[in-house]
Amino acid sequence: MLEFDLEQSKQIHDYGTAAGAGILLSDIFLIKRNAEIANIHLNESRKFITLSKQSERLTEWFPIMSKWQAQFGDRELASIYIDSTTFAINHKQDEFNVIQLLKAQQKIDRHNQLLKETQFGLQNQKRINQLYLLIIIIILLTIFILLRHLINKRKKQQIIIEKLRIENDLKEAQFKINQFIIRIEDQIAINEKLQNQFKNFQSYEQNDNHPSQETISNLKSTKILTDDDWISFKYSFEKIYPNFITKLKDKFPTITEAECRYLMLSLLNLSHKEMAYTLGISNSAIRVTWNRVRKKMNGNIDDTPQSLIDKI
Q: Which strand (E) or helix (H) includes residue 100?
């Protein structure tokens, strides 16, 4: 179709259309890597641009010639043609700006001519100019006020959205923490019930190798929160108490991970018994951890976990 348009345009001497068709064809043959035919169309379309006096088409011709030079010719020439493309585009823009300026100037000239033809003279012309200036100032001030209003409105919306996001994150984190606590309480109740049942079996059989003894031992060492659970728990905890762990370790760098967990669970008001079930350790181990925490945090015998936490 392009070749047909090209031939028809050449026959009726429509060189502008012929130039456009030739540029497109040269690009197509470049893609097909047919350098010879692409070059023929490039040279022919350049001639049509000159004949049509449509120099603005150079902004389309220069990039294709640059591609041809880069693939089959001189790479330095390719760079020059790229620069020529930029120059042609700028020149085209400059011509457009000149036309716009000329049109604007014509409007100004007509306006000035009308002013000169009025009977109000130079004084009225001055007043009109002052009025125009005032209108421009008012328009600029109005635009400025509207922009400030839109910017402030957008900032407020972003603040509200961020606040809602934070609130939702906190609600979700609090929900997960509550679920952990409920799981702990439920598991404690189940374990205590099972232990009571096993004690009935023990009254009949005191052998250490009895299956009930082994089951009770396993229950006592069961971790209610697995390692994966603890990672999720810690993530939710930090949502509710941001920087707690960082501040704790900065102020008391000798605090261990186990002692840190003890304080985190204390902050949620878990008892020593609940902590023992949660961490899968004995009550005595929890008490040992508490004594170490109190010593490292310079506490005394009257201190509670909460009173030490308040010092962080």
A: helix 75-117
pLDDT of residue 221: 47
CA distance 302 to 140: 70
Which amino acid, residue 45? S
Measured CA to CA, the distance from residue 230 to residue 177 in angstroms comes to 11
CA distance 299 to 304: 9
Whose tokens are 């028809």? That residue is 8
Distance, in Å, from the CA atom of 19 to the CA atom of 60, rounded to the nearest integer, reads 10
pLDDT single digits (tens) 160-212: 888 888 788 788 878 877 877 777 777 667 666 555 655 555 554 444 444 44
Distances (CA, A) of 12 to 15, 127, 242, 248, 286: 8, 58, 79, 88, 100
- What is the signed CA dihedral for 3, 7, 8, 11, rounded to 10 degrees? 170
Let me know: does 244 contact 238? Beta carbons within 8 Å: yes
Structure letter (DSSP) for residue 221 = T
Distance of alpha carbon 222 from alpha carbon 16, whole angstroms: 86
Residues 35, 72 contacting (CB under 8 angstroms): yes
C-alpha–C-alpha distance, residues 108 and 102, integer Å: 10
At 106, list the tokens.
């014509």
**Rounded Cα–Cα distance for residues 295 and 276 (Å):** 20
